[in-house]
Amino acid sequence: MCMIVKSILFFTSCSQFEKRFPRLRIVLEHISTAFGAEWVRRNPSNRLAATVTPQHLLCNRNDLLVGGLKPHYYCLPILKSERDRQAIMDAIRNDHQGRFFLGSDSAPHVRSRKESACASAGCFTALTTLELYAEAFANAGILDRLEQFASINGAKFYGLEPSEERVELVQWSEPIMQIPESVLVQDKDASETAQGEEADAGAASELRPFWAGSFLTWSVERISSSTMKP
Ligand SMILES: O=C1C[C@@H](C(=O)O)NC(=O)N1
Q: Which GO annotations describe the biological process of this protein (predicted)?
């Protein structure tokens, strides 16, 4: 079945689950469509929520497809139209019930598996997750929504207290950081197949971060516990 049709039909199953398990909390991980955003927004129950990744807030399918196929923009659910991206942004803008929250889905597939005849799905966003969300929220003029989205809504939905830790995000007038073209990591699979010296040292593989080469105007400046004196 076509994967796009399948992702729409999924909502029928979701309805059935909701009816069958009336106390079950359901999170739609990484929504990518206007339909998904609307589904969550209009749901009469407060047991349904959704997470959104930075790539689905920053990009649309043109980033993946125009001018050549770019495997580092390939993730699942696949990036959708600009209309979908904007509808998700609007849902977050108007989210007064705390139904949308952060879910980065950072997927550290090594470069050789991304730049391949059968590329692995996923974007490696973990190096700059908060900065990416800050760029997306600032571009959309909804920075006032970022704290709820990143730190409050998810905890509340799961019946937890928000974290005691604080992060301070700073916006600079000039770009403050360029996302590196690649980083080296220990690759367990490569280590297992490597021989001799390379195996002893643990084989290193390259990861290409999402948005590599782009400049960020946001930085995480401080991480502290609220009980610590500034
Ligand atoms: O849901 C997922 C899983 C992830 C991964 O590879 O870990 N990659 C994706 O693109 N989506």
A: 'de novo' pyrimidine nucleobase biosynthetic process; 'de novo' UMP biosynthetic process
The closest-lying atom of ligand 1 relative to the alpha carbon of residue 109 is 6
Mutate-to-test residue for ligand 1 from 75, 78, 106, highest number of ligand atoms within 8 A of CB: 75
Phi, psi at residue 199, to the nearest 5°?
-65, -40
Q: Are strands 204-207 and 165-171 parallel, antiparallel or unpaired?
A: unpaired
| pLDDT over threshold 80, residue 200 | no
Catalytic residue flag (residue 105): yes
DSSP tag of 207: E
pTM: 0.91
Q: Write down all domains in the chain, each with its CATH number in brackets.
A: 1-9+20-164 (3.20.20.140)
Which one is catalytic: 105, 144, 187, 200?
A: 105
Is residue 23 predicted with pLDDT exceeding 70? yes
227 alpha carbon to ligand 1 midpoint, in Å? 36
The angle formed by the CA atoms of residues 183, 187 and 192, to the nearest 5 degrees, is 160
Quote the ipTM score: 0.90
